Hints:
Elements: E1 6-7, E2 10-11, H1 20-32, H2 36-46, H3 48-55, H4 65-82, H5 91-109, H6 117-137, H7 143-150, H8 154-163, E3 173-175, E4 182-183, H9 195-209, H10 213-224, H11 229-236, H12 240-257
Antiparallel strand pairs: 1-2, 3-4
Helix pairs in contact: 1-2, 3-4, 3-5, 4-5, 6-7, 6-8, 7-8, 9-12, 10-12, 11-12
Amino acid sequence: xxxxxxxxxxxxxxxxxxxxxxxxxxxxxxxxxxxxxxxxxxxxxxxxxxxxxxxxxxxxxxxxxxxxxxxxxxxxxxxxxxxxxxxxxxxxxxxxxxxxxxxxxxxxxxxxxxxxxxxxxxxxxxxxxxxxxxxxxxxxxxxxxxxxxxxxxxxxxxxxxxxxxxxxxxxxxxxxxxxxxxxxxxxxxxxxxxxxxxxxxxxxxxxxxxxxxxxxxxxxxxxxxxxxxxxxxxxxxxxxxxxxxxxxxxxxxxxxxx
Length: 258
């Protein structure tokens, strides 16, 4: 979004900024019904900069800025419609969590990983409780505290919160300091495709190539196709005892090589 002047046809450089006194007057007009729609539109226009500041937090999600802006505006309109003037709270303090929540819901619903409705509902409730506890405790609450507040099992809440996390590409850069970037995949160990595993596979292949054609066929049928010694004997036309003897000799030769 940096450097982009126009979003959804809105020139961000010309967006108005409302003072608190004017905003209070507009809210009072909405509640009294005097020029309610006109006052509501002025409130929306006067708080679009707030939406712009919020969507900057989601720049790394790969979502079009125009889409995030529109979703953020929905959250802003909900905040305007539900804001209570009697509470001693600034509108921006009330609106920012509403805008963030609307964008998060949008991102979760468009997540390529399908999550069950019940699990997603539990996650939504857990996030609401987390936001409420954060304001009350002055810090991020533990999952156990959220689970206790919800009256739900700790494991269910933890699984629900994990299930709605945005997937990260293995090629997502996590550090770059003028040189080659470090990607997520550089920090993940995979025992199945480790260098040690490659060496073992290469040694195994070389050992197989040292065997005669019949021994290679026996090992291939036995260990790569899952056939019994009797089935192998029938297939290549020798006795089961010969298959057993050739198999043992071939394995012994491979062990010595590897």
